Structure formats: structure tokens, C-alpha cells
Batch of 3 targets.
Target 1
Amino acid sequence: MPIVQSPQNQYDVVVVGGGHAGIEACLAASRMKCSTLLVTLSAAGIGRMSCNPAIGGTAKGHLVKEIDSLGGEMGKIADESGIHFRMLNTSKGPAVWSPRSQNDRELYSRAASNRLLSQAGLDLLEDDLLHIHTEGEFVVGVSTRGGHSVFCAALVICTGTFLNGLMHTGQKSREGGRFGERSSRGISERLVDLGFVAGRLKTGTPPRIDLDSIDLSRVEVQPSDDPPNPFSHTTRQIKNQLVPMYLTYTNTETHAILRKGFDRSPLFTGRIKGVGPRYCPSIEDKVNRFADRDRHHIFLEPEGYNTNVVYVNGFSTSLPEEIQFEALRSIAGLERVEMIRPGYAVEYDFFPPHQLNHTLETKLVHGLFFAGQINGTSGYEEAAGQGLMAGINAALAVQDRPPLILRRDQAYIAVMIDDLINKSTDEPYRMFTSRAEHRLLLRQDNSDRRLMSIGYSLGLISEESHAYLDRKERLIEKGISFLLSSSVAPTAINPTLAMKEERLIVENEKLSQLLKRSNISIGDLVPVLPPVDQETGNAFSNIEISRQIEIDLKYEGYIARELQQISRAIRFEEMEIPETFDFADIKSLSTEGRERLKKIRPRSIGQAMRISGVTSSDISVLTIHLRKQ
């Protein structure tokens, strides 16, 4: 990817923004053989982790694994730059296990840039989008502030928090979408001129402190998993140096200090108009809303190998700088802490996502796609998932091929996009496992089995990776078949059952039935297996494959029930609603239902059923009218 001074006159796809959404969008489009231009304010800011240098977490880790299985880059970059890895929620069922990494901020950005620089068919222009050109309902090109005009068949906007970004610390405000970087002006106004509805959201970041000024003897050490679990299917082993994280807590003195600044808080005085993330509140919001709590978790997370900068997770704030500093010094281990940079809040424009199709193409302008925080989401992972899907669908549209629209039972990415469109959002949207009704099927460990064949069909997954998946599926099937057909004698298994406090058996029992017991794992059965052929032996000796075998058999009944529910749901998805269907003509719809249907314009009965405010009676009426037509 050359950094061009003068771009070509025409590209298939133009992507605006070099953040996590933009990276996935431009790589997907160019790898699908579309000439692609990335327009970003600064090449040095590509892949910059504006807030916490961490990837994954509860449900977010599922998104990263899915991005990787479709052929995206986030998982590979996270593995390459990770300094600390944890698999979260392992005390619970496998549906909610979630990988998370802490990453070296500079290494992550550099790895992302290197991927773009080496990508054929991708150019980069350091510039600012000024104008979007349309002809009728179609996007035809863009103009930049630097004076360049470029024709394109598809435009993907991934501007993050930069649209009219305004940063707040105490009573001080300054323009900018991120510390040390200017905001982007004019794009929002042009989109509003085209008929789009805009809104305002807020996010924030905590202060950064000096590692050498922390008294590590007074905080709890949190070691990394060792060995770590990689995000990417291409990473066979992570050999990075692992760094510990640290845990401490606020206290009543901290809370009293923070309250002293409430009268100068832009959050409480009304200077901030945008709505912030409910599930990741600022420290002042937590102290205000949970006044009965004596303490809150504070995670101290180093930002890399060659830096003393520490991210104070759990202390996001826009209070005055001197209040932040005083409050930090009241926390155990931080009594002599040095603050490198204060926290701040940033307000930015977004465009409520009911204005999108499930391809992430806008309903108003063909060829125009939105991805990331412009759609009201929060988080690198949510942005990257949207960027990947927008880039794929932009390329498919240019090539006049059918779009890629995943179902809710196929991916968390699909749950996110469907939620955004059907429910829209008036606060930053964050992914949780609880949002997925089929989360037992949408585990982080089986993302490749769900999605890799789709990525392969798009040309985003290599022949080698797809061949490995085929072999893996064959071994899983072989292992399951063996356990279903093989039995074990009481004398062989009862000692293990006794040790696990499980009921003993008095006659031979199928291995598959024993595996369904809550305290029995496949590792308990391997020592007592009857003779197996080499391929079946390979299935049980491979941790990744044996885990899949165990989950498939242990949760067989639950999985079968979910598959039945999905089969019924698909029938409703196949009941299509014509694009020109006039909901206003159906007088027997409820008033709220009619307004919501007119706003969202669902393309199927299944989608209509998931729209807030549309009742079961509305669905019955709508179905009858469709059948008449």
C-alpha cells in the first residue's frame, strides 16, 4: 500500500478512517480484488488504540474470533502484539468463555500499518474527507480537503469519534476526536444534507500514570494465562513475553475527593450533551449512581514493553485535572503516583443505525456504507466486525454479486448488526453474550466451524486454513462416532467415577453417556478408551478437537433444541416483505407498530418480529396482508 500524494482518479472502493473498522474494511475490499483507497487523517494513527490497549473480553472476544474466521486481521494483530492473555468466565459454561488480551499499544498500531502497507491493490491518502458526491440515489465519488477528487462505486465511512469531535476535561473543552488529533468537520453536515438523521454520543478515557510511581507491594498481581490461548486460527503458539496486570480499589476517601469536582464536571453541569455508555460509566458516574458502594475495582494495565505508561482501567473521567490527580493518590498503591496525562470525555456525531440495511449500506444512498462508531457502537471489536462486513459487502456490490448477510444463529456479528438496525440505539452499543439467543451455538471455540467456509468462498481464507478445517471436522466426526459406539467396563472407569464423586456403574456403559455427566471430562475417558485407529487417536490427543467433541456430546440435547428453534425462525426469515410495501395502508396495525415498521422497513417477517414496539398482533396482521398479495 503506497502512501500516495496524488490518488488515482477512480477506485472501486474508498474507505474513510484508519481505525479498527477502516482497517478491516479496506483489507477485505482489496483482498476481494477491488481497487481500494484508504483516506485517513494520519498514517501514524492507523490502528491506534485510543482507549484501553486491550482486545477481546466478554462477548467481544467472540467477535474477534469471528472476524478471524471470516478472514479479518484483528485476531492476528492481537496475537502478535499481546503482552497478557486471559480466558474469562472459565468457571461458567463454554458459551460464555471469552478470550482477552492486553496489548503493546505501539506494536499493535505498527502491525496494523504493516499489513496495510503490504496489501496489493490498496493505496493510502493522508487527507480529510470534505464532500460526498452523489447522482440521484447513488454515491459516485468524494472530494478531500487537500483538493483531490476521486470517483468510486462504493464508499465506506469509518470515522470513529472524529465527526465534530469535542474533548472535555473539567470546564476546558477543545476540538478533537482523540488526544493530540483534530476532529473531522463537514462530513456530518453533508450527510444531513443528504437526508440522514444525526445524533450525539459520548465516550471517555481514564488518566495514564507512571509505572515506576506505583507501589506494587500494595496492589494485587494478576498473572497472564500461561500458555495463552491465541485469537487467530493461524497462530499455533504465542511466544510473546508475558506481563502481569494489577488490581486495586477506590475507597470512601477517593469518592469524597471526586465529589468535590462534581460542580465542575462537564457530565453533571450539562456541557456534555451526548449520551455515554451505560455499561462502561465514568468513575464520577459510578460514585454518583452507586453511592452506597464503598469501593470500585481499578485495574492497572501497562501499555507495552518499552513504556512506563499505565492505563487506569475503571477510572474513566472528565473531571478537572487536579481532582483526578488527588483522587488517584488516595488509592492503595498510588499514594505517590505521577499522572502522565489526565482523562477526558469526547463527544462526537453518530447516525442512528435504523438508516442502514443489513449489509451496512445506507437505505438512502446506494453504495454508501457506515461502519463503527458512526453507527453508535462502542469498542474496537464491534467496530472491526462492522468494518469487515461493510468492506465485504462494498466489494460484493461493486462486483454485482449477492450480498453477505449473516443470520443471528450464525454469528455475534449478525446479532450486533440486527440489533443495531431493528432496535437502533440512543446510547453506545456494546456486545454482551446475553444479547445472543443462540449463544450455546455461538461459542468462541467454534467460530471457524461456523464461518470459515464463508470466508473461504469470498477469497479471504487461505486454501491451507480451509483444508485444516476440513480435517478438523473429519476428526470431530470420527471422535464423536467412536464415543457413541464404544463402551467401557465398570472395572476400568469406576475408580475415576469414585474420585470425581460420580455414581458408579454396574455394567458396561457407552462412553458418550459417561461424558454427559457434569464432573466427567474427555480427559477422564482417554486413559480407559478401547483400542483406536491412528486417526481417532489424533482426534483425542488434540486439545482443540477433543474440546469440540466434548462440548458437542455434553450439550447434545440443548444444541438439538436450539437447532429446532432456528429451523422455525428461518421460515419467518424466508417470508420476504417487498421493498415497496406500504405499511401505512394497513389500518389494523397498532399505531406504534406502523410507525416502527415504516421507520425500520424490515425485509422479512422474521426481522419485523424483532422490532421493538411491533406486537404479535401486528405480525399476524402483516402476515395476512402479505399472503393476500
Target 2
Amino acid sequence: MSYLVLARKWRPQTFGDLIGQEHVCRTLQNAIESGRVAHAFLFTGARGVGKTSAARILAKALQCEKGPAPEPCNECPACLEITAGNSVDVFEIDGASNTGVEDIRELRENIKYLPSRCRFKIFIIDEVHMLSTSAFNALLKTLEEPPPHVKFIFATTEPHKVPITILSRCQRFDFKRIPLPRIAQLLRTIVNEEKVTVSDASLTAIARKGDGSMRDSLSTLDQVLAFCGDAVADDEVVALLGVVDRRMLLEASRAVFARDCQASLDIVARVDSFGYNMRSFCQELIDHFRNLIIVKVSVNPAELLDLAEGELEDVRAQAVTATLDQLQRCQSILLKAETEMALSGFTRFILEMALLKMCTLVPVVPVDEIIGRLKSLENDLGKSVPAPASRAPVSPPKAPLVARAVEASAATVPSGKPSSSEPAQEGWSGFVAFVNREKKSLGAILEHGRPLQFTAHEVEIGFPAGSFHLTCMQDADSLAAVTELAARYFKAKPAVRLSPLAGENRGLPPTVQEKKSLEAAERQQKLEEDARKHPLVTAAVEIFDAKIGEIIAIEQDPDAKEETD
């Protein structure tokens, strides 16, 4: 006796046997009971979900000698003939093979005649979308007003290819993908009847391979039984089907959550050694992290996930170890990696880098928590820091009675020295500032000179030999201008001399520029010390786990007015 494949052996024979399509079965049964059976039906849905089986069951229910009945008896000659596929009044036509207008014209000629033995002539046209436009047009009039003894049942996987004129003349039923647990449950019933030992994990892998199609799942089970015999091992199923072992997905996510980079790389190496496609494994990881996210946020994730009960429990247990933000960031990395794999030949390297990046993700503090902590810190500082007192006007410093010369020499300033009410009474720096106000270009040059002698009788200024500044000052006009300004500054007539300097400047008085640089460095150091010790800065570093990169002084608006008492 020839072997009958499982998909044919276990084909549904009643509406009760048709799993996953209860909405279709109930509607058809109610229509039969109430006598409201349409003349044309369109069954749509993915492959292997029961469209053709439902068409045969409907045909049997309408032709049954005990009916029309909500369920066929499967015992009368009409039911048995339809089951065997040799009924003279039920015609199964392959739309992919009979696409021409001549085939439809032949069908129209056949429609005219009454059924031979049954109540109706029933035409089941599978893959009806394959008919040509001319064939559809030839069918229109007959489909709209068929004889009372004719019923049409169309089945298609691509309803969008069926003309709207055909769709509008049919009652449409959309068949759903069969949930994975329902497929696995039926597979368990079948293997028990067939007396085959298979684990639930292997049945789940077979059901997942079917991708919502019962026929594909049964065909896969046939293949597994042919390879493994009556005792099916899990490793054999994984190797035969070329599917990713779910345990590897759990191990990969566990390594990511544990920040174990070495374990992540080892998993990629195992995937490569098993011969799995890297991009397919990445897609499986994307689906796995989607499961983790849904379990994390959904009250009833079983309705949204295509997982068996045992797999769902594993996902639940692992989802507890990660935050929602971490899962979403990992998912984004995987989606980007999968896109890059499609355009690159370095798929293993891309997957390795994606997993390493997931392992080294820095935890992110939620924005709401950061804002709350900053507000709390601000309130605490407001309570502990007193309000600043009003600033009193500052009197200008009194001029010293004795003007100190530079380190090289010092002399007593004569009584003709300017009064304290005049600006810039600070030795050499004061004189340079005075020149800057009077003649800025000349003051800029003097900022680079060293005051070797600076008294009311003698002003000796040193510049590096051969320097640009020395050359400028040796100009007769420049020297005359400095002499005149020195006389005005001291209210005396000091002799002004220029001295070229060679070699090191150690022991010589500093220039104004050097003093400015030194003061700026000291101010920056003081600023950095104060900034690093500031409570807000230390709190921000702690909250964000940050490091201080650069400290920049905020320049105050010179036009801003300070409030005074």
C-alpha cells in the first residue's frame, strides 16, 4: 500500500477539525442552519491554513444526504465521494492551469445542466487570481446571476490580484495564520497517534518552521520522521531543518545582559561553525529581543507572541534581568546591523561588533530622574547658601608714597611725581597702561620691553637684540614719542634709552605681557579649583557619571550695571 503523507492523512474532514479558523467555521455553519448560503464565496489567506479544506467541508455540508447540515456526516455516499475527490457534482479546478477564456466558457456550458446526484453543482477554483482578464470577464455574468443549483467557492493567496468586479460578487472570508501553540498541539496529537517519540522543543521548532501553515508543518514533520525514524532527537531536528537553536538566542542575550564580551564572541563562532547564515541569526536575535520587549510591557504577552508555553517562561525569566531602555537600545543596534549585513560581505564581523556594542552599553539614567535629582540639589543649595550682600562702591587704591623700581634697580621718586588722583600709578605697568591710553600702537610695543631702569631721571628699556619691537622703538619718531610721554607721566624730564638684550632673560624684570600671562594662568588655575569644588558641578559629575573636560570663564557684559546701595 502506498504511503499517504501526513498532510493528506490528517486533512480536516469537518468544521470542528479546522483549527485556527473558528470565525470562518461559525459563520458558514450559521449560514447553513439559517438557509442563507450565498452563491459565491472567496476564501483568502496564506498557504496551508485550510482554505481548500474548508471549501471541501462546505461542499460536503451542502451535499450531505442528512443535510444541508452544519457538519457533514462523512458517511453518506455524497460525503465519501467528495472526500475521495471523485464526486460528479463537485468540481475542483486549478486556476493556475486553467487560466484561459476557453476554460471558463466550458465551465459556463457545464453550469446549464442540473446536478447528477446531489443538490448543487459546486465549483471550487483554487488560486483564482491566476485567471486571465478575459477569463474573469467571461465569468462575471454567470457569477452575478448563477442558476440556483450552482455554488462557487474561490480560494486565493493573493486577493489583491482578483478584480474588484469579482470581489464584489462574493462573500469574502479571510483565513488567519495558525498560532504556533495550536500547531504544536496538533503535532503532539499526531506523533502520539503515529507512536513517535518527539520532545516538545522539537515539535515547537517544526511548528515554527511551518510559519503559521499547518500543511507546511506537517510536511516538515514528515521529513523529520523520514530522517530520524520513530525516535527523534533534538540535535537531529536542529541539524536537519537548519534552524537556529533557541538556546543559542537565550545564551546570546544572557551574555549581553551580563556584559560578557568573550561569551558573545564565542556564540558567533558557534553560529559560524554550525553553518548558520549570520544574517538569519541576526534576524532571529531581533525577533528574540522583540519577545523580551513585549513580555516587559504587555500584561498578556501570550496573545502577541508566537511562542510555546515553555519558551514563553524562559523569555519571562530573562526579561526580568534587563531594563526596557536597555532592550530597546539593543534592538536598535541589531536592526542597524541587519541592514548593514545586506550590503556587506563581512557579516560575521558586523554581528560581532553589534554584540560587543550591546555588551558595553553604558547605563542611561532616565531624564525624569536626572531632573528630579537636580531640582532636589537646587532646593538644598538654596536653603544652605545665604543671599549675597549688596556690594559697596570700591574706592580706588591710594598711590604709594614711594614708586618701587624694577628688580634690577630702584630709586627714590622726586617730589614732582603725579598725584594719587591720576590714573596708572603702578610703576612700569602703570606707565605702559598710560602709553596705551595715549598711543595704543606704541603701548603694544612697550608691553614686550623690560624695565631695566625706571625712575624720574632715567628710563632704560630692554628688547631682544634684532627683534621687531626693538627696531620699531629705535625709530626716531617712536623714541621721541616715548620720551615725551615719560616726561608727562613723571612730570619730569627722564632720559630714555634702549638696550638690546642677548642670551637668557633670567634675573631681568618681566615684561607686561609676561605678567599678564602669569596672572591669567593663576586666574585660570583658581577658576578651575573653584569650579571643581562647586556643589552643582560635583553633583552633576556624580549624577551623569561624567568627567570635567574644559573649564571656560564666562565673560561678564562690560555694559552691565551692578546694583549698589
Target 3
Amino acid sequence: MKFIKHIPILLLVLTTSIVSAQVKFEAKASKQKLGVNERLRIDFEMNKDGDNFNPPSFSDFTVVGGPNQSVSNSWINGVRTYKKTYSYFLAPKKRGNFTIKQATITINGETYKTLPLKIEVTAAVDKPKDPNDANYIASENIHLVAEVSKTNPYLNEAITVVYKLYVSPSIAVDNWNEIDSPRYNDFWSQNINTQGQKVQNGTYNGKDYRFLILRKAVLYPQKTGKLNIEPLSLDIALRVPSNRRDIFGSLLMTRVNKRVSAGNKTINVKPLPEAGKPVDFAGAVGDFKLDVVTSKKELDASESFQIKVGVSGSGNLKLFKLPKISLPSSLEVYEPEHKEEVKTNLSGMRGHISDSYTVVPQYKGKYPIPSISFSYFDLETESYKRLSSDEIVIDVLSGPTNNANGISDRNTTNNAKQRVVLNNDQFAFIKTKTDFISTKSTYFFKTNLFWSLLLLPFLVIPIAIIVRKRKASRDADVYGNRIRKADKLAKKYLSNAKKSLGKKEAFYIALEKALHNYLKARLHIETGDLSKDKINSLLKERQVADGAIKDFIAIVENCELARYTPIDIVTMQEDYDKAAKTISLIDKQAR
């Protein structure tokens, strides 16, 4: 009777043992129907560990992730539950009805197979809305935004672009990497340092986000019309919450990689108005002040003094030339020394630029320095303004005087008239010799030509020996050959630019192309990679001096700027000579 009472308990134990001994191997799809632009997750689950797992071919899909393997063990009421999963993330290649075939695995010596899965792929949906898809969760909770301060600026008016990464509080960012940095074509640009930026709280599309400023840049458009600001693109490693929880009830996080882009921005640049534009307008845009000062106003002849022409304020200070001074011919003027004390922040350039002229008077007297005029476009009033300096008088107290006939007073005592002395050759225009030649027969033997040809081999042999020695010495001169090769290379690349001297647009296009072609040949890079940072790093790797690198980048910047500012042939020649010197110097130093 006691045994009969325990029969139900024994049957329950046996049933539990049989059920727990059954092997399960299943294929599960996150969805049976999806758009061609959505992702599909396939899980192959088993309740016992096995070997030799073979997935199906997935021929109609692209595997974008996986296989990811996960194992879980749990004990509930003394019963152990084991689960092992292989996960794949698939992207459909086209629309249609497809079958995901069987997967196989060996468990305890026996082979198990999953059932085939039917999947329907439709046309692209407007926005994938699978709340369990980690990529969809990431796309909804992370945004890279480019904020432009002004979309319709004037030519040479400063605008700013700030790149912000917005992240929802529900996800965590591990790290990111720039995969495409913007190149600001048709803009003068300068990046603003963003190191030390802290995460801030803000809103995006009406929702609370955390955001970090990744990059700031100040841009000055150099062309009118619609200009494109290229996007910044990032590859971000992040963790998003899944629909699974751990044993303590907390959400488990899923790691995904997400590529985000700030998108293209179009700027419509307005030309400066033609009405009221001064004839001497050199492209200055902003708010400026003009200063003209001299170091001395009284001095002696042959002493020197300085005239400083400076412009200060805010605007495109690095993108225009200062007005030139006009002095009497009795004052010897040297080339000016240009100085820039300019800082660039989010409001644009601000500071002071100046040209300092050294002047040496030759004669005693008073010399007026005429008023200097400078015009600029004022953005606040959207009109042109002109600034003029006061006339300055320089008093040279002592020294020789400058007479009207151009002779110093030291020679004024010798003014007596002198008698004209006739030249003995005043009749030299009358020919005294004829062109007649003798008709007497001559012989080749013992003539000058005969003796020259006879002695020529004896002269050629020592000359050939000397030439050969010099050639051997020159071949052994590795450094000298490198210098000659560098000079020849500079002339080769700059030949087209030299032909265009005097034609501003054609000259600077040819000069910029020559610089690009030189770096492409010398450093083995493509023209598209020719950013200033890239040039700097590549030349430093080849042990080129900082001075040569700085000069090369300055020439490239001049080429970009010169197309939009007035340039004379003297400046073109200076840029050409500097480019030839810099190319030659880089070729000598590069390793």
C-alpha cells in the first residue's frame, strides 16, 4: 500500500527526467516579413552543448553581423536549464520570398537539424521600426548635427560650423573614429581647438539628450553662389539596451557599431553690391580702423625712419592687402615688413595687420607724406566705408639740397661754360677701305685650316681626359647631383606656371596644379588627399624642415586666395620664385 502511494511521485520524476533528456535545436527569426532596407536576426538555439555547428548558406542575404555566440545556465527549483545560441544579422539583397535552409549540429553523437524558415522581403519601408533591432535603436538615439551660423552670407563674411554629437541617456558610447573629415572647398577655413570639451545636457527635436562638441570651424567663402560644406562622418562603437534582463532584473546591453553623418550643408553666398563700390576696394569685409604713423618727423639726411600702415578690427584680416604708400622720389623706400597679430575664434578673425616701410631721405627739405585711403564693406550697415589718414610732413633738417636740375649744392660753384672740343673722328663715316678681294689662287697645304686639322687630335685627347675626370667627379658628388636634380625638377613642374606669368587666374591655377603634381610624384599620394594636415605629416615623416613645410603650405594658401584678390605681376613673380625655391629645398631634404 505504501508503494502504491508513491507511484504518482515516481511517475512525475520519470516524466521530468524524460522531458529534460529531450534535445531541442531550433531556428528563430526576429520577423517573417521585412522591407529590403531592414535587417533580420536569425537565432539558432539548443538546450544542450554540441559540436560541428554548420549554418545555412544565406545566399539571398548579406551577413552584416555574426555569428555571435551566447551561453546561459540557470537553476530554477533545483532544475538546471541550459541554452546556447548562435546569432546572425542579415540584410536582404532584393525583394521576394526566400527560404533560410536547415542548420545542423552534432549533440551526443547524433546530428540534429532545424526546420527551414520562410522570409518575405518587401519594398523599402519609410523607416524601420523594430524596437528589438539594436541598429534601429541606435539610429533613433544618436545624431550627428552640423550647425551653421548663417546660410546666406556675403562674400568674405565669416560663418561658423559646429559639429555636435547628440546621444540619448539610454545608450552608452564607448569610442568613435572619424572616417571622413570635411574639406572646405571654396572657403578659407580655420579649425578651432575643441580639446577639453565636456559633455553637456540639451534637447534635440524636443527630446532630452547629452551632447558633445566634436569640431568647430570658421569659414570665409571665397566664391559667390551655392557652395557645399562636406559632411563629417563617424564610426561609433556603442551599447544599446536589449529586451533581455540579467538575474537581477537589469537590462542587458547589446554592442553595435553605427556610422553617422552630419549631412551636406549648402551655403548661398551673396556677392558684394556693385553700387557704391570704391575703385580701390581690395576685398576687405568687416569693421576696421586705419592707422598711419611714423617713427620720426624730424631727422637728418641719410638717417632712416619707419612708416607703419596698419589696419585693426574684426573681419577677413588675412585675406586682403594693405594700401601702398606714395612718396616723393627723393625718399628712398625699402620693401615693407608685413606683420600679423590675428586671432581666430567663433566670431571670426580679430586683431591687427601692418606693413612697416623703412625710408631714407637723401636731401634736406620738407617732404609731405600724402593721405592714405582704405575702403571696406561694413556688414552691419551693408555699405562701403572709406578711411583716410592725415597728411604727415617729414622735416629733414640737414644734408645736401636737391636743386631743380638734380645736382647737389656741393657742385653749384662750377657753373662756367666750357668750349666745345671737336672729336678727331668727325669724318669717320667716310669709308677708307673697300671690300675687294684678291683673285690669286690659294692652296690647302700649309694653310691655317691644314695646320688646325693636323693639330686637332692632339688637342681633343687632353680635353676629353679633363671632361671625363670632371664627369666622374660630378657623378661622385651625390649631394651636388641631388641639388641639380631638385632644381631641374622645380623647373619641370613650374614650366606651365612660368608661361602664364601676368595672367592671374591662369598663373595661380597652373601654380597650384604644379604643387599638387609635385607632391603626388614625390610623396606618392593622390590629389584628393592633399589637405594641409596631410602635407604637414607626410613631409615631417620624410624629415623635411619645418620652415620648408610652412613655406609650401603658405604658397598653397596664396594660390587659393590670389584668385579672388587683386594681384600684380611683381607678386606673381615673387610667388613663382618662392615656389621654385621651396620645391627645390624639399627635394633636397626629403628622405
